[in-house]
Automatic annotation (TrEMBL), chains A, B:
Protein name: Corrinoid adenosyltransferase
Superkingdom classification of source: Bacteria
UniProt enzyme class: transferase
Annotated family: Belongs to the Cob(I)alamin adenosyltransferase family.
SUPFAM superfamilies, A to Z: P-loop containing nucleoside triphosphate hydrolases (SSF52540)
Pfam families membership: CobA_CobO_BtuR (PF02572)
UniProt subcellular location: Cytoplasm
Length: 201, 201
């Protein structure tokens, strides 16, 4: 165990408390935030779903649009469909490499955006999760400018979380908070461990 | 909208499908994974809570130990305490800069580890979330070797998710999947936007 002088520890922590309190006092704007979770590392969608849980814990209303549909029903879908205050839509047609049909993918993305736009126009929805929207943008299935316009026109207190690799630069510009998830290690890709329920699915 | 030749698109996607299917076929090991979410970016704990939701959606049993307790009850705590199959413990004594008392912090971390160890010995618990454990390790509140031993001795199919900045190198070594969350932008720190319910709390 590290040996630390308790008095020095208390002093250092009092100093840190002062800094943290100043930071909290400075951050006094109340507004809906646009959060983008991107990069190749694991944890983007799951983080979005964690925020959903957090919002529901505060009695907030949430909406979810999943732009990419996997082959199997996921744990998150089964779970959040059982909860109240959740409007859940899985709109994609499957991975782009499974559909192999660009026109069908574009139609699915357009239909998904219509549902998303309905949420972005509704001040009763406190948090909107647009899961894997970045993938649809990356493939050019949706017009970026339209998406950015609809995001900007949303109710001022509404939070939006956008996930997926390759977030476009203009979306990063517009966002309030952006995290890039870096792969340090990946069990599935590097170590031959099957995608696990509760972790990947 | 991007102009893409539909035939070329279908060919490229068929090629990608082949690669993805080979990767899935190669990943045939079934085992509990140890996942570490670290780095300064937003999304570590929320990602852990998202995996909790995912696991619950598959009917799995989960355990949570939060090593750092904030000043307020969080949305995630309120939410997951209402769910079945969740064993939820908030064990910390508050942020280190608020307690300013190292001995008290060490005692709280030890008590938290006892609860965590009980979960790590129980094959009926499918997923264990050790939220902000890295912070307790970083401050030397817990012996790293003991923590690593207990993690390694857990039931082979049990998943563990560890969150918090500054994950120790030896924990990264032991882990199957590790993501480092990089800050690209942060609303609270840089733009004076207050920590928002559903996002930070």
């Amino acid at each position: 165990m590290k040996k630390v002088d308790p008095l020095r520890h208390a002093e250092r922590m009092a100093h840190k408390q002062k800094i943290m309190n100043e930071r909290i006092a400075r951050a006094d704007k109340e507004q809906g935030v646009l959060l983008v979770l991107t990069g190749p590392g694991k944890g983007k969608s799951s983080s979005g779903f964690g925020m959903l849980a957090r919002a529901l814990g505060h009695g907030m209303k949430v909406g979810v649009v999943q732009f990419i549909k996997g082959k199997f029903q996921t744990g998150e879908e089964a779970f959040f469909r059982q909860q109240s205050n959740v409007d859940y839509h899985v709109m994609g047609e499957g991975y782009t490499w499974d559909t192999q049909d660009r026109d069908k993918d574009v139609q699915a993305a357009e239909a998904a955006w219509e549902v998303a736009r309905g949420m972005l126009e509704d001040p009763a929805v406190d948090l909107v999760l647009l899961d894997e929207l970045n993938i649809a943008l990356r493939h050019g299935y949706l017009e970026l400018d339209r998406v950015l316009d609809d995001l900007q026109a949303r109710p001022p207190m509404q939070h939006v979380v956008v996930t997926g690799r390759h977030a476009p630069e203009a979306l990063i510009e517009l966002a309030d908070t952006v995290t890039e998830m870096k792969v340090v290690k990946h069990a599935f890709k590097e170590q031959g461990i099957k995608a696990q329920k509760g972790i990947e699915l």
